Amino acid sequence: MGMILRVLLLSLACATAQAQTRFITVASTTSTEQSGLFKHLLPAFEKKTGIQVRVVALGTGQSLDMGKRGDADVVFVHAKALEEKFVAEGYGVARFEVMYNDFVLVGPKSDPAKIGGTKDIVSALARIKAAQAPFASRGDKSGTHFAELQLWKAAGIDIAKDKGPWYRDTGSGMGPTLNTASGMNAYALTDRGTWLSFKNRGELVISVEGDQRLFNQYGVILVNPAKHPHVKKDMGQAFIDWIVGPEGQAAIAGYKIGGEQLFFPNAKR
Amino acid sequence: MSGILPLRLEGVSFAAGGRTIIEPLDLTLEAGASTIILGANGAGKSVLMRLMHGLLAPSTGRVAWRTEGPRRRQAMVFQRPVLLRRSALANVVYALDAAGVPVGQQARLAREALQEVGLAYAAGRPARVLSGGEQQRLALARAWALHPEVLFLDEPTANLDPGAAREIEAVIKAFDVAGTKIVMSTHNLGQARRLGDEVIFLHQGRVAERAPIEKFFPRPVSPEAAAFIKGELPWA
Amino acid sequence: MLDAVVSGLRLVATLDLRLWEIVGLSLAVSLSAVAFATLIGLPVGAAIAVGRFPGRQAVVVMLNALMGLPPVVVGLFVYLLLSRAGPLGELGLLFTPPAMVIAQTILVLPIIAALARQAVEDSWREYEEQLRSLGVDGVRGALTVLWDIRFSLLTAVLAGLGRASAEVGAVMIVGGNIDGVTRVMTTTIALETSRGDLPLALGLGMVLIAIVLALNAAAQIIKDAAQRRYG
Asked: CA C40, C42, C44, C47: dihedral to nearest 10 degrees?
């Protein structure tokens, strides 16, 4: 009984200590978290400002939803149309572009759709469908899923109608989807950052990259304090100012895995 | 004596699961004489005692003590004592506490009770690791501490060897000497003779005969009692 | 598989500070939840075991069914409760360890209550007459039985602890798996799995299993000692 009480007190003390820390909650995407970018960026910001940044990594759709509910101070996601809608509906104050990375189409070395090394993502998708080659989709309303759906549409394929057993809807994050693709030698669309830090590749290699249409723009938005008065607008804005400012932009450019730069800063100020 | 006795059972019957276990009966238990309830297995001895003690509610009729609120003035010792997983002393203290005895007196009364049943040496031992005889004596100590006016005993020595049984009998005698009314069921006719003053003989849920000990054994009136005595005697 | 063993051993051997923080938080959250659930669940289970009230059978069935509550559903429920847009949003508890404790308490409570109900009910058959003979009523009787079979109830508490320390769905949703704040063993395992670092994930899993095993062994030793001591 004594031990139980001690543990309870400890956890309460823990909770109180946290309440005293200055922190903001950022809803972001699995790609930024799992690529290790935040681990690289945040210590610099925290050191400079003393503000702890707590990142909850979800799909873009869920992250925006978190912002709508007021459970985050800042959202940091990649689906421009959805972000603009979020701001237009009054949930966010303003959207700032931060950086981009690109999507790559990965697939098995055996390359059943014969698309390896091509640059045209749209015709590659068409050939995957024609070959009925296995394809693993996020299917979770994330930014990546959203981008994938746009690309199918561009290829003139109504994926909701045309998908067959070859199209596997995993309904999960980027990592689990890659695990699935790796396990069944399927093609999959992924952001480059997650791919570079992903370890369980198996037979998978990059099949298509470099197409303009694969560019993936990230934006950052302060959740509107007018909707949710408890939003820590000053600290949240400080984070946004930092990440679109010279220090943050330089830090983004400096993040590399195996010598390869993952994200390209392109803030407009 | 101005206590809770006599106990009157008026038209008391008991049925469970569509089976009548005790036929409607009238009984009066006076203070003083030790009453032995005899009868074959299934005659209803245990049920009758539970009706008297208040553990079972009669299907018909009523069980009436001379005064109200008799719970603390009566105690019951079962065939298999249920002891709590704590020391022997703490078991007695628990009973005293449940009976509303002031905290300040509990330990002293409990020690006296253990002394009385010859268990003072085991006061600190966990109750559940005591021998069968010791456990039953502890159950008696628990009753003793309450100084009941009436003590019900349901075949208290049925699971014990003869040596342990004799120790239990000695404690029951001590209750009698101290003025507690004994109501005990038993299979053991020798024990009935040693401890009892009168016999209530049950047969198939009815009181077939009620008689003083010295009349019952030599000259039972009812044929059922006669047959029972004849059948049981060789093992007495 | 061998990779995982090596990875797990290396994790333990290097006493990685961050790992121990994660282990510490896991234990703090799960033990707190189990402590709360025990404080509530044992009396509730005992009351249902001893009580005679209309609808009792339905309550028993419901309690048993709730043992299978999916963690994700509990997580979602607590999330909606604690979300800023929810009824308890004011507290600002979402994505904090207390939120995880709340979710796990809800998850574990039916397990402890249902198992306690069964244990007390079984024992009550043995104790009831004796306790009533001593003039002990329902509430006090239930508490007496609870205390008397306390070492058997360890099993119920352990079942709860097993559930709490193994689940990932609820803590992931209400905790958010925030690095250094709400990241626990299971969410770390989920994260490393999604990063494709399967050996590390499996290694962490082995650490988790070892901890749960140690807790169970300790409880068993206590139980055995008590059995010998008290009978």
From this structure: -150
- Is residue C110 reached through a cis peptide bond, with omega within 30 degrees of 0 on the bond before it? no
In order of A261, B34, B164, C47, C105, the CA distances from B2 in angstroms are 101, 18, 35, 39, 57
Enumerate neighbours of C (3 or more CB pairs within 8 A).
A, B
Task: Judge whether C230 is closer than 8 Å to chain B, CB to CB.
Answer: yes
Q: Which of residues 52-111 of B touch C (CB under 8 A)?
A: 53, 55, 71-72, 75-76, 78, 81-82, 84-86, 94-95, 98-99
Query: Is-above-0.90 flag for pTM?
Result: no
Q: Is A228 exposed, middle or buried (0-12, 13-18, 19+ CB in 10 A)?
A: buried
Burial of A78 (0-12, 13-18, 19+ CB in 10 A): buried
For residue C94 the two structure tokens come to 């979402």
Total Cβ atoms within 10 A of residue C68: 8
Token output for C189: 């395992």
pLDDT band at B72 (very low <50, low <70, confident <90, very high): low
Q: How far is CA B171 from CA B32, B107, B138, B156, in A?
A: 17, 21, 11, 11
Using CA atoms, how far apart are residues A149 and B142, in angstroms rounded to an integer?
A: 80
Q: pLDDT for B78-94, tens place per residue?
A: 999 999 999 999 999 99
In sequence order, which ranges of chain C are alpha helices (DSSP H)?
2-13, 17-50, 56-66, 71-82, 97-133, 138-148, 150-166, 169-175, 185-194, 198-230
The verdict on C56 touching B (C-beta cutoff 8 Å) is no
Please answer yes or no on whether C144 and B84 come within 8 Å at the CB atom: yes
Interchain CB distance below 8 Å, A56 and C195: no
C95 CB neighbours in chain A (<8 A) are 25, 54, 56, 71
CB contact under 8 A, B98 and C134: yes
Chains in contact with A, where contact requires at least 3 CB pairs less than 8 Å apart:
C
Give the gyration radius of chain A's Cα atoms: 20
| Residue C134 near chain B (CB below 8 Å) | yes
Q: Does C146 touch chain A (CB under 8 A)?
A: no
CA distance, residue C46 to nearest chain B CA (Å): 17
Q: What does DSSP assign to residue A190?
A: E
Q: Which residue do the tokens 């067959």 mark? A: A164
Strand, coil or helix: B21: strand
Residue type, B117: V
Alpha-carbon distance values, A220 to A98, A150, A173, B180 (Å): 7, 22, 20, 88
Provide the sign of the torsion angle of the four alpha carbons C28, C31, C33, C36, taken in this order: negative
Using one digit for the tens of pLDDT, what is the confidence trace for B178-215? 999 999 999 888 899 999 999 999 999 999 999 999 99
Helix intervals (H) in B79-212: 88-98, 103-116, 132-145, 162-177, 189-195
B vs C: CB pairs below 8 A = 44
Residue in chain B nearest C140 by alpha carbon:
B98
- HSE at residue B45, side-chain half, CA atoms within 13 A, is 24
Q: Which residues contact B32 (CB under 8 A, 6 or more apart)?
A: B181, B197
Q: Is residue C52 less than 8 Å (CB to CB) from chain B?
A: no
Question: Do C129 and B55 lie within an 8 Å CB cutoff?
Answer: yes
Q: What is the pLDDT along chain A (269 residues), one digit of tens a residue?
A: 445 555 555 555 555 555 567 999 999 988 888 888 999 999 999 999 999 999 999 888 889 999 999 999 999 999 888 999 999 999 999 999 999 999 999 999 999 999 988 999 999 999 999 999 999 999 888 889 999 999 999 999 998 888 889 999 998 888 889 999 999 999 999 998 889 888 899 999 999 999 989 998 999 999 999 999 999 999 999 999 999 999 999 999 999 988 888 899 999 86
CA distance B117 to B106: 17
Q: Is C193 on the interface with B (CB under 8 A)?
A: no
